[in-house]
Structure prediction request, 88 residues.
Amino acid sequence: MKTETKPPTPEPANTTTPKGSGSSSPLLVDARGAAAMLGISRATLWRLRDARMIPLPVKVGTLSRWRVADLEAWTRDRPEVDNSQAAR
Prediction:
C-alpha cells in the first residue's frame, strides 16, 4: 500500500517573506504586487518611480522589489488628492 505525500505549496513568485518568521505577510513585492497595493497600473508605477514620487525599490540581484512597509507608510502619509475636478 502506497501513500502519496503532496509537495509543499510554493509561495507566489512576487513576494518575499522571511524564513521561519511565522509571518505570512510579505516583506518585498515585485512591480505587479506594488502596483496592486497602490491601485495603479505597472506603467504608472514605473513612471512614478522614475519621477521619484514613490519609495524607490531595492535591488535583489537584478530584480527590483519594493518594501511593503515603505509602500504602506507612503500610502498612509501622502496627502489626499481631490480628483473631483480632474480634467474632463
